[in-house]
User: Fold this.
Amino acid sequence: MSEIILYDIPSKDRCAAWSPSTWKSTSTFFPFPSPQPPYTDYTPPTSIPARLILNYKHIPYTTHWLEFPSIAPHLQSLSIPPNPSGSPIPYTLPAIRLPDGTPIMDSKRIALALEDRYPNPPLHLSSPQLTEIEDHVLHALRTLFGFTLPKTPRVILNKESRAYYSDKLSKRFGTPLEQFEQENSGDGKWEELRPFLKRIGEMLREQKGGGPFLKGVEEVTYADLVVVGLLHYFRRLEGGVYERVVGMEPALGELYRACGEWWERDD
Assistant:
C-alpha cells in the first residue's frame, strides 16, 4: 500500500466530505462529560480536519467511504482497538490506515501521527490556543444541535445511513429528532452561541497581522483546522446556518476563505 487510506462517511448525490471530524480529525460520537440535558455529552461525526491535514501537507491518500452501519465491522476487521470503555460507541470515524498498514482511529491520534511522519509544514499541535479553541468549538456545535443534527439525515446522508443515524440519536436523546428540533431551535440558541463565536474572533484578531489564522497572516495551525471543520459542516447543511454564523463573527468567514485551497479536494 503506497498511500494513506482515509475512512470517511459518504454524502448523497456527489460523495464529498461533510463530517466536521474527518475534515479536522475529534471522534464521531466521542463523549465529552457535561451536565444535563443528556445530549450535551454527544459529539457528532467530525472527520473534516483529518482530511484538511492531508490536503494541507500534500500527503497522498485515497478515501474509503463507510456508511454508518459499516463503520464498526470494518474498523474491527482492521484490528483497531475500540474506544475506551464507557464511550457510547466503540468504533468511530475518522480513521486512517498508514502506508505500512498501521490503522489509527480518533482525530487527535491521527493528527499526532501525521505530524510525526510528515512534519512539514508544521501544524503546531502544542499551541496553547488549541485547548481553548476546541472548547469553544464544542460549545458552539452543541448550542446549535437543534439546527444541525436533525438536518444531517435530511440534507446529507444516504439512505443506508439515514435511519441508523436518526434511530441512534433519538435513543440517545430520549426523543424523536423532529421533537428535538422543535424544542432546541429557537432564537435564544443564537444568543447563547454569540459569546463563543466572538471569543474565537477575538483570538483570530489578537495575533500579529490580525489574522486570518490564529498565528497571524501566514502560519496555519491545527486549531485553525478545528474551526474550519466546524464551519464546513455548517455550510454543507445549507439552510443558512453557515451564513448566520459568519454574519455574527466575520473573522470566521475570513478564516474559512483563507483555507479554500485545502478544500479543493473533498473526496
Remarks:
- The beta strands are 4-8, 61-65, 95-97, 103-105.
- The CA atoms of residues 104 and 110 lie 6 Å apart.
- The first helix runs from residue 48 to 56.
